[in-house]
Design goal:
The protein contains 7 helices and no strands. The two termini are 46 Å apart. It is mainly alpha-helical.
Length: 160
């Protein structure tokens, strides 16, 4: 789900803002943003449905919808600027909409990270268990080679 969010990142809004000087580029950027948001909405729906607790799912759903509204306004302003490329008021509005989209992207990311805490805990635990298994494998290897044998005649195989 992070890939579509990253596509709508502040870098994208910066491109949109810089295109104020080249309004002919706005159509392609608006189309790209629409596609990226469509992917995000689809994956956001799945993330919201599987999020625990339910409040996190509600947050994800709400913030993705708010981002969608911001994208709509941004695309509308881009279209308005293409119609009248010299209108300084529309340029300012486009820049303001791009800032709002950037802010909404960060809110979506924070909601996704809040829903990701359990997943991150599992990844951390799995990593710790993998480390313990690797340590045990190493110990078994040395014990089997005889470097950890006791001074008496007992061998690792006797205790294994």
């Amino acid at each position: 789900i992070l890939m579509p969010v990253v596509s709508l990142s502040p870098v994208f809004s910066l491109q949109m803002t810089k295109s104020v000087t080249n309004p002919e580029e706005l159509g392609g950027l608006a189309s790209q943003m629409t596609n990226d948001y469509g992917h995000l909405a689809l994956q956001g729906r799945m993330a919201a449905a599987t999020a625990e607790p339910e409040e996190i799912g509600f947050q994800i759903r709400t913030r993705v919808q708010e981002l969608g509204h911001g994208c709509i306004f941004l695309v509308q302003k881009a279209g308005a600027l293409q119609i009248c490329p010299t209108d300084s008021y529309t340029k300012r509005e486009l820049i303001e909409c791009a800032r709002a989209v950037t802010e909404k992207v960060s809110l979506v990311l924070s909601a996704l990270q809040a829903g990701n805490k359990g997943t991150q805990a599992c990844i951390t635990a799995a990593s710790a268990v993998s480390g313990i298994i690797a340590d045990l494998d190493t110990t078994i290897m040395f014990a089997t080679a005889g470097t950890l044998n006791a001074e008496n005649n007992e061998s690792f195989a006797d205790h294994r």
